[in-house]
Design brief:
The chain is of the alpha+beta class. It contains two helices and six strands, in the order H-E-E-H-E-E-E-E.
Length: about 100
């Protein structure tokens, strides 16, 4: 079982973190769950928030999602927690009034 680390960052800090990660490794940010089996890259996760997967293609050349046929919201695909990926949860930024 993995360990969890929770910290709060602003959208610009989130972008800087992902920029650093992308400069170091071939990492794709994709949704953790999806109606599609294919892992599509999320372009700006720091502006919309969500439940993401940081997928390092150097460690795992192909990301295959696991099919979940029965759930409250219907069938969907999800990243298997046993894979060498990082779960990245980022809340939607709050807009100042």
């Amino acid at each position: 079982m993995g360990r969890q680390l929770q910290f709060h960052i602003l959208p610009e800090d989130c972008r800087q973190l992902l920029k650093f990660i992308h400069q170091r490794d071939p990492v794709i940010v994709t949704n953790w769950t999806s109606e599609l089996e294919e892992a599509l890259e999320v372009q700006d996760p720091c502006s919309q928030g969500g439940w993401y997967c940081l997928w390092n293609q150097a460690l795992l050349p192909n990301l295959k999602r696991r099919f979940v046929p029965d759930s409250i919201k219907g069938p969907y695909y999800r990243v298997d927690s046993a894979l060498p990926t990082i779960e990245f949860s980022y809340p939607a930024p709050v807009q100042e009034l």
